Amino acid sequence: MSKDLNLKRAFQKDDYLLTEDWIKPTERIGWVSVLPSLSGLRSAYTYSDLKIKEELINIFDENRNYILNLSDNWDGYSAQPFNEGTLNRAYILIENILNHFLINQIDISIPLIQPVADGSIDINWETDEFELLINISSESNKQVNLYGEKLNSPEEEIEMHIPYDLVETVIIPWLKKIL
Amino acid sequence: MAEEDPLTWETEPSENFLNEHFLYRGIHKNIWKEWKNLQKIYPNFFMTKRAIDGLSSDWSKYTNPQTTLNHLNSDLAKYGIVELNVGKFRNVIDENNFPLTIHHDPIRIVTRTLPINRAHTLIKGFKQRNTTPIRRKISKIAKWALNMCPTTEE
């Protein structure tokens, strides 16, 4: 994407994005606001407030240590330990989504990454604007389950059961639309 | 008055679960310790290893949150006890057409892992392939039972 892009013009409502590098020139972009503060965000960080890659790596490392150290019966109801592949799939997905918004200088919070007792991982966004839950199965050949809603806009609800490789192509446009 | 023999306990039908009743479930520290806000219940609470067999809970008709905690042989440093109001639970199921059902499943004989428990109840219906909307919406009606929010070191 061109660094010379005039972001102010690009993100005014009903304008068309000029570059063809990453989006069709006829595709409209809704209004997106760069959040000036963290107030109201339920996640601890916004992507653009951090030293991006280093901070994200730190968050992932801390999260990895927490989840991979969960041993047999970690939930008190016989849950099994996690495999690293499940976590890696979650991290890759998060990083790709956040990278997209970083490149476009759009603030988006970093999601919570939470262990689930069936061995899957929840990627959980909860903000004042939207909630999005993406569940990564422990079995790599299984599809990803997701559910999202824009608060007070039921028409924007999304619920899907899709292959892992398609998640970004679905979620990124959805997030851009509702942010 | 003589105590009832657990072997005589009936398995009660779902209509005996009144709307004002509650279902209690223990949430281990490994689930809630990374929650950003402990005053809120997050969707990863509502799942179990073999969800297809049902999610265990305790029926308020025959127990209370402290007894649920006692059955876990633990304390609030390790577990919190979440409650789900049966009426709200049914509303969420009906409004969203979720396949969840409540089944009374009293434990009449002590096992290696489970004590006798007349209140034991299973929430079934996790056969649906996408549980994310279920877990999201159920987490919104769940809350810590009175005085059963886990304690932290802070």
C-alpha-based Rg of chain A, rounded:
17 Å
Strand order of the largest sheet of chain B: 4-5-2-1-3-6
Q: Helix/strand/pairing class of chain B, anyone? A: alpha+beta
Give the mean pLDDT of chain A: 78
| Helix-strand topology string of chain A | HHHEEEEEH
Q: Name the poorly predicted regions of chain B.
A: none
Gap from first CA to last CA of chain B? 46 Å
The biggest sheet of chain B amounts to: 6 strands, antiparallel
Query: Mean of residue pLDDT of chain B?
Result: 93
Oligomer: heterodimer
**Main beta sheet of chain A, described?**
5 strands, antiparallel
Number of helices of chain B: 4
Helix content of chain B: 10-25%
Description:
The complex is a heterodimer of chains A (179) and B (154). In chain A, 30% of the residues lie in helices and 19% in strands. Chain A starts with 6 loop residues before the first helix and ends with a helix. Mean pLDDT of chain A is 78; it is low at 1-42. Chain A is of the alpha+beta class and 179 residues long. Chain A has a five-stranded antiparallel sheet with strand order 1-2-3-4-5. Chain A has four helices and five strands, in the order H-H-H-E-E-E-E-E-H. In chain A, helix 2 runs antiparallel to helix 3 and helix 3 (84-103) packs across helix 4 (167-178). Chain B has 154 residues and is α+β, with helices and mostly antiparallel strands. Chain B is 21% helix and 19% strand. In chain B, 37% of the residues are buried. Classes of the chains: A alpha+beta (179), B alpha+beta (154). Chain A binds chain B through residues 42-44, 63, 66, 70, 74-80, 112, 114-120, 122, 124, 131, 133-135, 143, 145-147, 159-161, and chain B through 26, 28, 30-31, 34, 36-37, 42-44, 47-51, 56, 72, 74, 79, 129-133, 135-136.
